[in-house]
Queue: 3 jobs
Job 1
Amino acid sequence: MAGRGKHALSFKILGECSTSKARASAVTLPHATVEAPVFMPVGTQGTLKGLVPDQLRELDCKIMLGNTYHLGHRPGPDLLEKAGGLHKFMNWDRALLTDSGGFQMVSLLELAEITEEGVKFKSPHDGSMMLLTPEKSIEIQNAIGADIIMQLDDVVHSSVSGPRLEEAMHRTIRWLDRCIAAHKRPSEQCLFPIVQGGLNAELREKCAKELLKRDVGGYAIGGLSGGEEKSDFWKMVKVSTDLLPKDKPRYLMGVGFAVDLVVCVALGCDMFDCVFPTRTARFGCALVKTGQLNLKSKSFAQDFRPIDGSCLCPTCKTYTRAYLHTLANTEAAACNIITVHNVAYQVPSVGGWWPLCWALLFLSCQTSIVLILLTFYFFLPLVLNPVNEICIVYNP
Amino acid sequence: MKYTVEAVLASGGRLGKLSQTSTAGTIAMETPMCTLFTKGGSAPHLSAVMLQRISQVPEVACMSLGSIASHHENVREFGKGLGEFSAMKDKVIFTTLHDATAAVASGKNDKGGVAVWGKGGKMKLDPQLYMKVQEAFCPDWFQALSDGDTDKTCGKKRLLKAVDRTLDFLDDIVEMKNESEVLKTSSLIGAIEGGYSVEERRRSAKETAARPVDGFLIEGFEKGHSSVDLFADEEFMTVLTETMVHLPDDKPRMMDAVWSPLQVIRAFRLGIDVFSSAYPHTLTEKGFALTADYSLPPTSQPAKLELEGSKENSASSGFYVDLNDKRFFESFSPILPGCGCYTCANFTCSYLHHLLNTSELLAYVLLTIHNFEQYFKFFARLRETGRQDKLSELEQSLARQEGGQREDVVR
């Protein structure tokens, strides 16, 4: 079992693409063996938006996320420890990953101040000043007990450059060492460091090289979901994956649009997460190959097809777009029903486009196949992104 | 719809068999029973798959027109009726006018028709439009259009009007139903009105029973679903008893009210056969979980009893517990040990408290499952107790349990 190894994670490549850096792999964690590439749905507060864990199991979901910032507040690490960890608390026996809490500090809180010690912020609950240090983040994540935990990193918006960006990169490495030192359950929880460096290739390289000196079970690529240009974003992913070792999993944080998944799989990333599929479901939007259907729109009032005729999820087997249209405007049940489809769409082997992609990768596909897939899924995005931008990724 | 009385109980109420035959076969049901409360054609908060995790789900899905009437043209275009449209193909579909849990504005009905409310606002239904909607929906049972906008404050003139109007609507509907190919096999449920006037109730019952209806829905006691406890008033019971006398025995009597198990027993003993399951939904919406004990003598230990430092109700078990309460923060036991529902088998009070505290959707999913399961179980227990002729004991036990919670049972 992975739990007994040096790291709480073992990684096995099952097949590789001969052209791109894409690979199919098995990531073995204490609570599950996860086939990658994998999309991990986000269950912020110890629940995935109205779904019970059994539904996620039925959708073949093997790993989901929890957010340290939210769980640290409510119900708090003390209770989670008493409950026997988040797995037991929420009755999820498969793998979990928690972030460090740093991203929410910076994105949610106006008054966050970052010092060498940690992230200082004003509690949204009682207004008192609090400090999230690398040690504190790991302490909370140890209490939550996820299979994969993340280092606290110094997150800056992707538009930031210059000395602040450089400082953040260096600080991220210093904080990593503090996180490694503070980690009390390395045989049960695998700590991932994070490649930072914004949109500066040189900084990313420097950062990745520093991380390589540390003994870790896998790597994350961070700071890249802040609305930067696709060409910059893909270039930074490529710079990072070029340096990261092939024999460890690579987790691209906060990325979840279908087109990004396909490109970044080709660039060698294995794990992804994003709130988008679950968030958009709450607004009545269902994901399909051509984008998303806003089921609240009148155009679906007499559309008696399922969301996606080729999808095998319970939602597509049960409901028509027309009925979901009547529900989406008024009833809470609509959110659950659409979320099931959107998770199925993103998670391997059940819905949407992903199984096709995965199967092809698994078969160690030839040059053309990934390119055909890319062309297909780029059909719409191409309107926005000129062809040469995509070429940059492949012929740098 | 076919109804037969199996036994009339000495302690009041009757046990019966209700069967519904369709092309798919015959569904046999026993009364007293409840229907499945729905919102927009689905069980509240639940997908069809999640509904399957509840045991003893009623065979009849009750769908109020408010939120769905405006979609009737889409359902007509669909062509297979409301049941299949809303993924409830296997259920007996019963369309009613109003959502028992939603407040209804008063004074909007007139001679021409009745107003129903959805999220999109008011929709005025005259008999023609009403039947157009029903033809699109093809329900197995449907309530006749009615003016139930009356209560104890209404004077004689208003009650007279309500009864007359409802009978006029019924005549129109019977005529249109006879001419309708689609609704030929649907069962028509006549509405009994008359507020608190025994005289008007009697007239409404007699006149409605003289028309070709298959069952009766007794309403018009509370305007706009005021959520007052009707049983607190002796007069309500007198009026209801008097109404029953004039209804034929071979047709089911229904009331679509938000009633706790105790209120259901009382109404059953006065002769009601078919109830709504709106009550557990109102508890769910508040973060409450049903913990009433239906065994005789009561044996279970609701979660709240195991907690220290609980407030005034700690000594007696109650009908429900409020999971928003901080005392559940560290309670790692299920809501009701031995409950057997999906929620109690998999989740703790502490987790449910956390979900409520963070306003997570799953809180309402899990509470719906528990509260429905408990309420459906109560009806099975009610039938069993009826057969054993121990209704008085069950009523007394529930009355004791209700204890200090009586005042805010509903909403």
Job 2
Amino acid sequence: MEMKEIREILKLLEKHDITDFTLQRGDHRIRVRRGGAVFEREVAVPVKTAPSPGMVPPPSPVEAPAAQPETLAVGEKQFVVTSPIVGTFYRAPSPESPPYVDVGQTVSKGTVLCIVEAMKIMNEIESEVNGKISAILVENAQPVEYGEPLFIIDLA
Amino acid sequence: MSRLFSKILIANRGEIALRVIRACRELGIKTVALFSEADRDSLHARFADESICIGPPNSQQSYLNIPAGISAAEISDAEAIHPGYGFLAENPEFAEVCEASGITFIGPQSAHIKLMGNKIQARKLAVRAGVPIPGGLDGLDDPEEALHGAKKLGFPVIIKAAAGGGGRGIRVVHSEASFRTAFSMAQSEAGSSFGNPEVYVERFIESPRHVEIQILADHHGNIVHLGERECSIQRRYQKLIEESPSPALDEKLRRKMGEAAVALTREAGYVNAGTVEFLLDGDGNFFFMEMNTRIQVEHPVTEMVTGVDLVKEQIRISANMPLDIRQEDVVLRGHAIECRINAEDPEKFTPNPGTISFYYAPGGPGIRVDSAAFESYYIPPYYDSMVAKLIAHGRDREEALSRMQRALEEFVIEGVKTTLPLHLRILGKMKFRKGEYGTDFLDKMLS
């Protein structure tokens, strides 16, 4: 990574007032921290807010694990499939059928990976890349929100 | 006995989403917030018991996305949806999908939203209810025929889109010469903006006041009105300052307008909270303009003078509960004023999104601030520019005005330009102080 790029990043972080930032490209990893706050956030993962006791949720140390954003480490040669809609995630077309894909399976562009059901409509989610399923991040029949990571694919 | 909901989804953002969350908390109802990717750190997403990201920043794909909203209600097991104002609040299709999905829409039935959404139909309803409307013509599509009618009404006239409302799709024509072109342009604008080219022509009322009546109607045939809101301080038909009671109404006129609003509501068979908007001329004649089928931005001024929590009432009504107030219980106590603080250039009115670097909201006796802003909050450019509603209540108009004045001076919002200085200028005007103003006040002040 060049100094010019790092300078660009620093400028952007300051502009948007980001306090903690990590970027990983292959073996290179850069982490920038501004001010006091510390938390790992390598890929923006939807934050599920835990029920908070008061109107202003202070970052109480007891509750911290629940309120922290989940961390998802993704390598350079990996691709994250996110949910394009809010709905319920299904790994198979019906409870009896086998799942569309499993970990380790090779997929190509257009391979159906799962279904996200919204308003009784089954939306098939297809792979946008060629590669191998490295991880399935959501349990069958779980609700998912827009942008929630569903699969990690190792790029071919 | 009916039961309140155990969980409500709020299909909105900003201060109104927060307002609904507050009402739900007080009623012991769990809340689900929807948010777009641009609102991940916003207060409504943080204060709700659960929150669900439903789409990218663009509101078409997030806050206006009906399937996403319904799907979010389904995965979170919400029994009802509160639409707030704006976005899907007056979309009959959304209310209809809620009804079909077995989710209670906290508002009127879809049929009533549709009825009031067509201003020509609403005018006809007013006539049936015996409510006065401005002289006018509808069912016209030929400019020649329309011109003939306009001459009879007498210029200036006002051309409005049937599917318009809220100040959109309005054109004032001062002379016969410009009428034909204006009429055709209004038709094509209505077609492209609202998907319905129908327009109607009304007699133009010179320097009127905009006075609206708040109503509540339950499923058991009870209807009450909660007095008026004076909303004449407007810029391009967008309200900036509202107050209750109106300096122009006496008890007799208030009762007359209130009864007209109730008659219209009854004639329609309308249920839930609603607002009947009237134009009031200098001689105390009032004319029906439109009915808004949602909670209004300016609802707090009514809450301050009546002591009725309108959002809680909406929820109770939707849960089939009867109103527990009768008309004789409604008393206007003191005076309330609201200033809408927008992130806008106070002179040019261009929106000014950005990060609030310092924020201090005023307090003290008689002050209420409804806002979702805080220090370091980033005002995204995708949505409307309102940052806060500042409401002052006093035992009379004089006290409410002095409280508003000092609260505006206390309010600190840095990092973005706001309309705070404009409000101070308006409050400094003698005509405003005396309550002698119409809808043309602000345009005159700024020109």
Job 3
Amino acid sequence: MATPLEQKTNQKPVQFIVQRQDGPDGKAYDEAFEVPYRPNMNVISALMEIRRNPVNAAGEKTTPINWDMGCLEEVCGACSMVINGTPRQSCTALVDKLEQPIRLQPMQTFPIVRDLQVDRQRMFDALKKVKAWVPIDGTYDLGPGPRMPENKRQWAYELSKCMTCGVCLEACPNVNDRSNFIGPAALSQVRLFNSHPTGAFHKEERLEALMEDGGIMQCGNAQNCVEVCPKGIPLTTSIAAMNRQTTLHSFKKFFGSDEGRTGEAVSR
Amino acid sequence: MANHRDFVGRKIHSLLGVIPIGLFLLSHFTTNYFIVRGEEDFNKAAEIVGGVPYRLFLEVFVIFIPIILHGVYGVYIAFTGSANTGRYTYFRNWMYVLQRFSGIFLVVFITWHVWETRIAAAMGTAVDASMMQNIVDNWFMLAFYIVGILATTFHLANGLWTFCITWGITQSPASQKAMSYVAALVFIGLSFVGVRSILTFAGVL
């Protein structure tokens, strides 16, 4: 009698269909692969197996598949790809839990570098645009900052789990060639840094950035982002919160207020 | 307001859909509903609405300009989006797509509707119950009007839901969900009023 584990190892090879592309301007094509089954394998270990022996399902020698990866524990966001139609991280995509043939595609929202590797530069540009950091550098010691209430820290921590993986941009119908929408991730980061007691010193600058073209108003409220986020970040709550903050900010700026005079200085 | 054209544009687009267009729709549907009480009552109501003081001013600033701005900007918004309901079948994604499709359809429907009512009236057709009775005297036009009414009520109800997010009123998931139910009630209520009126005009009810 074989043990359950042995039965599993006797399973048929795992079927893959990989969408490939030889370069940024190349044409996309599908290539099928068969990978010997091993217990507990994930998509990345299968891709590594193909790299070790780059032969496709037809038995022809081919080039190894290109993909991106980093931490292998779903915190870096680098290995995102579309697996069986769902954008997610390939490191936590367990073969046992996937329907075969397993279909791997690059995320379409981003420029393709090669095969499954995409260029997520636009996300990092968006973080720069909205100033998603707390500026504390100076010429002298500024001393300790204000304390953050514990209950606020708890929800802000959830927002800090964003790993810029790109899954929310991939699922968003308003992130495409015809719009310059920066995407849900950066909007949520403004909420994170605006909620930080020291970060709040630069609240208005971030809101101003969100009000520019491609900013918060490009959101169409399809709310796919919150459904697909692998970290369960309340992206749509963040977007609504930023809608409120930018609305109030624009009123204060237009009608005048002693708070939020940054905008005045910027427009001058 | 250097680069904030889109920001102001989208906010105003959202606001126009509710005030004044949503309010106008409420008044329009209410007037039409008089047909349920009979032709005579409807004709009286139409006469009062048609005879309000400074009517042209109200028509231009409360109806024509807001609808044209909302429509033109809305078509632009619709064409900068992309439908991906094939891959993401979530309820809200369907609402997103339906909002855009209903909007595009309404540009056609409202243009047609204004042509054969308001412009016809300007050309001399009398505005009374017989005007609408003649328009929906065939099944094709009746169906076109029913679809038009449902597209309108859906677009307004779902637009109220997005309005509350766009203006930062509903932030929490709980309040957004509660607003979904409110929007559903608005859709059902207005659809009942609109469809019952048009069926009465057509003589079906």
